[in-house]
Structure formats: C-alpha cells, structure tokens
Specification:
Residues 548-567 are annotated as: Disordered. It is a single chain. The protein is of the alpha+beta class. Helix content is 38%, strand content 20%. It folds into three domains: 7-211, no CATH class; 238-330, no CATH class; 334-547, no CATH class. Helix 18 (507-516) crosses helix 20 (535-547). The N and C termini lie far apart (78 Å).
C-alpha cells in the first residue's frame, strides 16, 4: 500500500508504477522478510484466501502466494487477495503489508459494493472502502461513487487527532501479469491466477497540514520498528499475541488491566479451553469489573500450586460456579473452606451433609463459609460428632441439645468448635443440614465479635441486633442475642440453603425447619407464642426430621419426615 501526504507524490507514483520489480512469493517467505513479530502473526492468521470451489479445483498454484512489489527508496508492499465477491462474503478484501526500511505496517483493505458485482472495476465502483489495522479496527473508511473517492473521516483510537483530519483515498490499479492484462478479479485463462492488485493512496490533512499515514496510523498501530522492538508487549508467546490481536479495544483493555489472564493463556498455549475461558472472563468483567478479582484469585491459586492438575480441576470447579452464579461469589474463599474447617471427627453421614452444604450458592452462607474457611485464615473451626459438657453454676453438665457451638478454649479468640450430639440416631439428612447451618451462624457471630474486639468496628454493619449490642458495649454477646440475630437475618438464608441441599419440597418445609432450629429460645416464644397458628406445625416439622417419625398424628399440624435418612 502506497501512502503520501501530497498530490505530487501521487503523480510520481502513477509515473513510476511500472518502474518497479514484482514477484510472487509464498507466505513463509513473506514472514521471513518481516521482522515485526506482531505482523508475522497477523500474516499467518489472516493469509487464508477463499475462492469458489470451481476456482480451487482448476487452480494448481498455491493461493497463498503474495504479490511482492519493490519500489524505489527500499519501499516494499506485499499483497494477497483474500476473497472475491460472493453471496457469503459480499466484498473484495486484500491482506497488505508495507515495509520501508525498519518501519513495517499491516492490515486488511476491503471494498464493499453497494450492489452485487462479479468483477471489481475501480472506474465504476460505488460502495465503501475500508482499511483495518491488525486489531481489525477500521482506521480509514471512504465512500466511492462511480469510481470517485469521496472525502472521508479517518477513524482512530486517538479521537482528538481524528476529529480534525480529512482523508482522501485514490486507487492505483495493477493489472494481471499472466497475459491478457486483466483487471484484478477477472478470471484468467489456462488455469492461471490473476495476480492483479490495487494500491491505495491515502492523503490525510489534519488542521490544514498534510500528514503521512500508512495502512495504520502511528497512534493506532501496535507494532514497532524492527530495530526498536515492541518493548511493551504483554507476552512473547506468539499464540497469545495472536489471541490478543483479535480482541476489540474494550476486550484488550480488560487483559491489560489483568495480566494474570495472560499468564493463564501462556501456560496453556491458548488451547481451545483456555481461549473459551479467557473470552468468558473478559465479558464477565465487562459486565461487572469486580468479577475480575474472583478469576484472578483462581489463576493465582493455580500459580501457587505450580499449575498442578489438581489445582486446575479445583479452579475449573470454582469458575463454573462463578459463571453459573455471577452475582453470588466475589472471592474463591468459600471454595477453600474444607482446607480450613476440620470436619475429620464428624460421623460419616454428617460429614457427607456438610460437604454438600459448604458449596451452597446462597449469598449469606457463602460469606459465612468464606470468612471461616479462608485460606490461611486466622479462624480455626472444628466440627465433631461428640458430647459436649459446659459449666453450669459451678457444675460440669452434658449438653443435651442436638448441637451447640462455643469457643474451643474459653477466652481464646478465633478458635471455635461445633458439637453434633451423637444421641439423635433417627435424624434425616435435611435435619442435619439445618443443624449445621444454624451452628455455622453461631460460629460466624463469634468471629464477628472477635473481629470487633480487634478493631474491626464495621463487623456488625449488616446485622442490626449484634450491631446495637456492640454500640452499647453489651459484651459478651450471649446466645439469646445470637438467636435473635438468626431470626432477624439468617432464617431465610438457612431455608434457601436447605432448598438447594435437597430440592423438590414445598417452600414451607424449608422455612419451618429453619425456624425450628430456634425452638426453645426466647425469640421463638416471642415471635411464635402458644396459640400462634404456625407454632405447632413448625415444632412438628423440626421434631419429625429429628426423630425420623411422624409428629402430631391425627391433627391438622401432622408432619411426616421428608428428608433422606442417613442409612
């Protein structure tokens, strides 16, 4: 492609266009003569001419042979016809590379006629002419009417510069050299390829001062001179560069801001799976910039694990959950919970239940598990199936409730133990899930108190009961306040997590189980006093799932267990 800033140079081009040398060379040779890596990759990825089946059958010559033109002053162009007009691709397009000393440029020239045409004729062409840079961004667009290029606007990534520039485009025709002097695009005889091509003279004037522009304007072109190198390249992996060059400006900006994504692509050499993941991440971040933190954490996790297969599988699991629930998870910490919560001493059935509920997508409990199960967390939580005894009026007494939670060592911060009473043999898995979720809320509240006492004064911001207690310095915060906060803030979250754990029941089953965990507390009696129409139904639901037997037989509040038994 020939470009200039003066009409005199255009006249000179016309006068000297036959005083040049030309030859056909294959793609491999073009690549060997180009020094800029980005352009090498661009040529490899785009040099795929598409012709009709008839032409492909008749043509014996390699369709990826470029026309190399060498002009004076060491100015060289390489051009390749990518496709003629067709129903599927109603335009003519050329891949063009220019080289002058160490400055190399590349892009795609595209003619789109207003009406279907079989042969391109610049003398009568009416339609749109465009030049695309290596990012596939339009940098020049001009309308032609009956072969005359109209003044157009030059598009650029630098809007301030482009708004004051006017571009004129003139076409220079080089006819076929294989006999017959055919115009470009006209079918040759004897199965020969028409090697005719077009040059485009781009005359750009900015603020009344002419300026030189090549196929890609300097402010829009990513490639550097061959001697200076690219310097600021995000990657030196050719496959990664190829992927990056196909991105839009908005997509590319996401990658620039998150270089860990480049490391991921490099690690997997832009495999189909990694490419798909990258695109999904990019659009997820365009939708919500905060999403990138999650994906960066998954990549960093793999890096920390030396890209092991185990870490890849775990990271993939986390990503799928994020894609399925884009507004729920902002961190990978909920998924790292089993590394930090010790459930080794749980009975097999309870452990199986816990393994399932820890992956709940319910936002409130995802946050709970994230806090208590964060990797390298200062919180240490143990869950065990074991009797627990507490001091009552100076006497050590065994706890008889189905479960209870407290500090592992009295007075020690950030260490909590949840006890599951082994005496309740008939309980269903749904009951165990409700029990564990309820106790997890207690452990969470303990952690908030510890955070508050360590200076995190915003610990209770979303929990009004505990917040008010903190304001009046009502410490220690006892079980009654815990239960009041569960009733106020966590009953719905427990119900939602139970529904996710074992779906398919009426909503009331999950709601009643969540409320049933508060039976025997002062807040339960306050909100559901004797005579409340919901009280007996809730108590019976909780009791039937706890014992595995129907409750309230023969009454309107009869409840039958619906959860799966452990055995």
């Amino acid at each position: 492609m020939f470009t200039s800033c003066t009409e005199e140079l255009y006249d000179e081009a016309i006068a000297t266009q036959f005083k040049i040398t030309s030859q056909k060379i294959p793609l491999q040779e073009v690549v060997s003569e180009i020094n800029t890596v980005q352009i090498q990759i661009f040529a490899k990825n785009n040099a795929r001419p598409e012709f009709t089946a008839e032409k492909q059958q008749k043509t014996k010559e390699n369709n990826t042979n470029f026309i190399k033109i060498i002009k004076k002053d060491d100015y060289t162009t390489y051009s390749l016809l990518l496709n003629n007009y067709s129903k599927e691709k109603p335009f003519f397009s050329f891949l063009i590379i220019t080289k002058k000393e160490t400055v190399e440029k590349a892009g795609i020239a595209k003619f789109t006629p207003t009406n279907p045409i079989a042969v391109f004729d610049e003398k009568t062409f009416t339609g749109t002419f465009q030049i695309f840079d290596i990012y596939h961004t339009v940098i020049v667009q001009t309308q032609f009417t009956n072969g005359v290029a109209q003044n157009g606007r030059k598009t650029s990534k630098n809007t301030a510069k482009s708004n004051s520039c006017t571009t004129n485009v003139t076409t220079i025709v080089h006819n076929c050299t294989n006999g017959g002097n055919h115009a470009p695009g006209v079918k040759c005889g004897d199965n020969l390829i028409n090697d005719g091509y077009y040059e485009f003279l781009i005359t750009t004037t900015c603020n009344s001062a002419p300026a030189i522009n090549y196929i890609s304007a300097p402010d829009a072109f990513a490639g550097q001179s061959a001697t200076s190198g690219s310097g600021n390249s995000l990657s030196f992996n050719n496959e990664v560069l190829s992927f990056l060059y196909q991105l839009t400006e908005e997509e590319y900006a996401v990658v620039v801001a998150n270089p860990l994504l480049v490391k991921y692509l490099e690690q997997y050499n832009v495999s189909v799976e990694s490419r798909e993941f990258a695109y999904r991440v990019i659009y997820s971040v365009i939708y919500n910039k905060e999403n990138m933190n999650f994906f960066n954490e998954t990549i960093q996790y793999q890096i920390d694990q030396n890209w092991s297969q185990e870490s890849a599988d775990f990271a993939q699991e986390m990503r799928i959950r994020k894609f399925d629930n884009p507004t729920v998870f902002n961190s990978i910490t909920p998924f790292l919970i089993e590394k930090n919560i010790d459930d080794a001493l749980l009975d097999p059935c309870s452990k199986d239940v816990f393994q399932k509920i820890k992956n709940t997508t319910n936002c409130d409990f995802a946050n709970v598990f994230a806090k208590l199960g964060a990797d390298n967390s200062i919180y240490n939580t143990t869950i065990k199936t074991e009797h627990n005894s507490v001091m009552v009026n100076g006497q050590l007494q065994q706890v008889t409730t189905p479960a209870n939670t407290g500090r592992t060592t009295l007075g020690t911060k950030y260490n909590y133990t949840m006890y599951v009473n082994p005496d309740y043999n008939g309980k269903s898995k749904l009951f165990i899930a409700a029990l564990l979720l309820h106790e997890m809320a207690h452990a969470y509240f303990f952690s908030l108190v510890d955070d508050y006492n360590m200076g995190a004064t915003n610990s209770f911001n979303e929990l009004p009961i505990l917040f008010n207690a903190a304001v009046v310095n009502q410490f220690p915060i006892g079980p009654d306040l815990h239960h009041e906060e569960i009733a106020n803030s966590y009953v719905n979250a427990i119900a939602a997590a139970l529904q996710e754990f074992q779906p398919g029941f009426p909503q009331q089953v999950y709601d009643d189980l969540a409320w049933g965990g508060l039976y025997g507390t002062s807040i339960f009696d306050t909100l559901l006093p004797v005579g409340n129409p919901n009280r007996e139904r809730i108590i019976n639901r909780y009791a039937c799932e706890q014992t595995g037997n129907p409750q309230g037989l023969g009454t309107t509040n009869q409840q039958n267990p619906m959860g799966q038994p452990c055995n």
